[in-house]
Design goal:
10 helices, RND transporter, 2 domains, transmembrane beta strand, 9% strand, alpha+beta, 4 strands, single chain, 476 residues, Outer membrane efflux proteins (OEP), four-stranded antiparallel β-sheet
Length: 476
């Protein structure tokens, strides 16, 4: 018996050889940090760090309430939360593979026993009731990490689903803040166009009176009328853009249109100072939720490879049965009616048409695909950080120049006003200087909006305050 068991185990172990596999390498933190140092080494950073609720630094209660509603009630985010709960349930199902299966069953039957078979009289040739009751146990040993690898894979998939919620939250919060600021910018621009319209109308009336006096030609009046038509078109375009922004904001926030209609114009972004987090080039990967998600998915693919490898080794299982069989119900649970059983089984396919090899190849291919997705996420993250910082720097330079332009134009307006008040010129030159100033103020508004948007892009590029320091799995 011992010789038989030894020979059987030897054959199983000899046949359980795992084929050689080739796995793709991932980009490392050092690769990323070295690349970022080349591009970002000269950027100055503030002694600040991003927090999860980074938008609260704008000190806008209206915005805070809107984001609170969006992050708690928007259907697109709730779908991901439900999927996370589903992933946790799937994990619990998978965990059952490591536990013994205990079952209980019973059976009652009545039959006639053959006279011409193994049953002696009086059993043979008569009808009898047969009572059976059994308690069974089955357990599969996990020597080769077959079941444990599936549990780890399910855990990592659940963690990826959890981090994906963070990815979606970051996308929603950054998009809402950008839309909110752009909506306020468009409202401010609309006010400026209305102000511009008043000046153009006043100029047009003055030119019309001067024309009557022979002091202005028809070309000047037509040019003024054209300017008025253009500013009216700008007003209509701006109103359309405001409605589009409201629609986008309501859709992404997951609220009804009336909720956005009730928003008041905010000036919270006017004096907001942009900052760059300290040590911007260090450990970018741990602050990007989508990279953490890809990492968890990569770990799950690696676990599936381990599971595929384990299938090249024999399955060893234990089964037991504590049963009772009796023709009489009264004596069913007596010791004499017991039929206990215990056994061990070892199984391994010797020839399966290369099914296990191809299964392993599929899992390796899945892993390598996930590596490429992981690497692509890292490349996109690095490019987003570098591009966002450079755009922010360029925009700030443009804004600085525009501020200088505005200062000079304000001085020109004061000069033209003084000349008009002294009666040295009519009011047209003074109004023209105001029109130039308003147009430059509109340009400044656009640049300020671009600066805030660039900063929000930078916040997103840095992960919006996310830190992957070992996510916890809340499975109650």
């Amino acid at each position: 018996m011992r010789v038989f068991i030894l020979i059987t185990l030897s054959l199983y172990l000899l046949t359980g050889c795992v084929p050689k596999i080739e796995k793709t390498d991932t980009l490392t933190n050092s690769d990323v940090n070295n690349e970022l140092k080349k591009d970002l080494g000269n950027f100055k950073s503030s002694n600040l760090s991003l927090e999860k609720n980074w938008w609260t630094k704008f000190n806008d209660e209206q915005l805070n309430r809107l984001l609170d509603e969006a992050l708690n009630n928007t259907p697109s985010l709730n779908i991901l939360k439900i999927r996370y709960e589903k992933a946790k349930s799937q994990l619990n199902i998978t965990k059952a593979l490591k536990e013994p299966t205990v079952s209980i069953g019973g059976n009652v039957s009545r039959q006639r026993y053959s006279e011409n078979y193994i049953f002696p009289a009086p059993l043979g040739g008569n009808y009898y009731n047969l009572y059976e009751q059994a308690l069974g146990l089955d357990y599969e040993f996990d020597f080769w990490d077959k079941n444990s690898s599936l549990i780890r894979a399910a855990l990592n998939e659940a963690m990826a689903q959890k981090v994906y919620i963070r990815v979606k939250e970051l996308a929603i919060s950054t998009t809402i803040v950008k839309l909110y600021d752009t909506l306020n910018y468009q409202k401010s621009k609309l006010n400026k166009f209305e102000e511009l319209k008043k000046d153009i109308i006043e100029k047009h009336h003055i030119l019309a009176k001067l024309h009557e006096l022979g002091l202005a030609n028809k070309i000047e009046i037509n040019t003024s009328a054209t300017s008025l038509d253009r500013v009216n078109n700008e007003i209509f375009d701006t109103k359309i853009e405001i409605e589009n922004l409201k629609n986008s904001l309501a859709t992404i926030a997951g609220v009804m249109p009336s909720r956005i209609e009730n928003l008041k114009k905010s000036n919270s972004f006017d004096n907001y100072k942009v900052f760059v987090p300290e040590n911007i080039h260090l450990d970018i990967l741990s602050h990007r939720p989508e990279i953490a998600m890809q990492k968890y998915l990569l770990l799950s693919k690696e676990d599936y490879i381990q599971n595929a490898k384990a299938q090249f080794y024999p399955n060893i299982s234990l089964s037991g049965l504590l049963g009772f069989t009796s023709f009489s119900w009264a004596s069913l649970f007596e010791k004499s009616s017991s039929v206990p059983y215990i056994g061990t089984a070892i199984s391994l396919p010797l020839f399966d048409g290369h099914k296990r090899e191809e299964n392993l190849n599929v899992k390796v291919d899945d892993y390598n695909i996930q590596v490429q997705q992981y690497n692509q996420s890292i490349i996109e993250a690095v490019n987003e950080v570098v591009t966002s910082l450079k755009k922010l720097e360029l925009n700030q330079s443009k804004l600085k120049i525009q501020k200088s332009v505005l200062e000079n134009n304000k001085k020109n307006v004061e000069i033209q006003k003084r000349i008009y008040e002294l009666g040295l010129k009519n009011k047209v030159s003074y109004i023209d200087s105001k029109i130039v100033l308003i147009n430059d103020e509109i340009i400044k508004l656009a640049l300020k909006n671009s600066e805030v948007n660039a900063h929000i892009d930078l916040i997103k590029a840095f992960g919006g305050g996310y830190e992957n320091k070992g996510e916890t799995f809340d499975n109650n």
